[in-house]
Amino acid sequence: MSRLSPTGRKALLTLHLVTSLGWLGADLGLLALGVAGLRGADPEVVYPAAGLLVTYLFAPLSVLVWLVGLASALLTPWGLLRWRWVLVKFVIVTAMLGLVLLLLTPTVRRLGELGPDLTARDRLDLVVPPAVSTTLLVVTTVLSTYKPWGRQRGVRRAELESSQTAGRPG
Ligand code: HEM
After folding, report:
1. Would you call 152 helix, strand, or coil by DSSP?
2. Which atom of ligand 1 is nearest to the CA of 23?
C-alpha cells in the first residue's frame, strides 16, 4: 500500500529520475576524462578534474541515489522485495555504492595527486571502473523501463491477480 499522495509520489519519482540519471551522466563525465587521459591529454588537468568530479558530484550522488531509490521502493506499492527488477536494481546500486566509496573515490583522488608520474596502468583506473559502472547503470535503466521477471516467489495469488488487472502497482 502506497504511503504517498499521487502528487508526493510524482515528486519522489521526479527526484529519483533526476538523481539516478544525473549519476549516470556524472559517470559518463568520468569515463570521458579517463579516455582523454589515456589518449594523452594533460594529466595535470584531467586527473585533478576527475578528483573534483568524483568528490563533489559522483560520490555524494551515489549516496543520494541509494537513499532516494530505497524510498521509491518502500514508499510506493512496488515495495523493495516484491518485484525482482526492483530487488536486482537495489543489489546493483548497493554494490556500486560500496565500490564508489571504498575503492573508486580514493583511487581517483590518488590519481589527481600523482599528476605527470602516472603510468598507463594508473590511467586505466579512470577508464575501466567508469566503463563498468556506466554499463551497470544502463542495465539498471533498462530494468526500470522494461520491468522484467515478474514477482518474487511467495506473493499471494489474489495480490498477483489484482496487480495484473491494474497493469502495475500504483
Ligand atoms: C537503490 C536503488 C534503486 C531502487 C530501489 C529503485 C526503485 C525504483 C522504483 C520502486 C521505481 C518505481 C517508482 C514509481 O513508480 O513511483 C523506480 C523507477 C525508476 N527507476 Fe529506479 N531504483 C533504484 C535506482 C535506479 C537507478 C540507479 C536508475 C537509473 C540509472 C533508476 C532508474 C529508474 C527509472 C528510469 C524509473 C522510471 C520507470 C517508469 O516509471 O517506468 N533507478 N525505481
Report:
1. coil
2. 30
The set of residues, in sequence order, having a beta carbon less than 8 Å from that of 33 and lying 6+ positions away, is 46, 47, 49, 50, 53, 126
Position 168 scores a pLDDT of 60
Compute the chain's Rg from CA coordinates. 19
Phi, psi values for residue 80, rounded to 5°: -90, -35
Cα–Cα distance measured from residue 47 to residue 27, given in angstroms and rounded to the nearest whole number: 14
Regions of the chain with pLDDT less than 70 = 1-2, 154-168, 170
pLDDT of residue 159: 52
- Spell out which residues line ligand 1, taking CB within 6 angstroms: 9, 13, 16-17, 20-21, 24, 65-66, 69-70, 72-73, 76, 78, 86, 89-90, 93, 137, 140-141, 144-145, 170
- Set of cell numbers at residue 65: 541515489
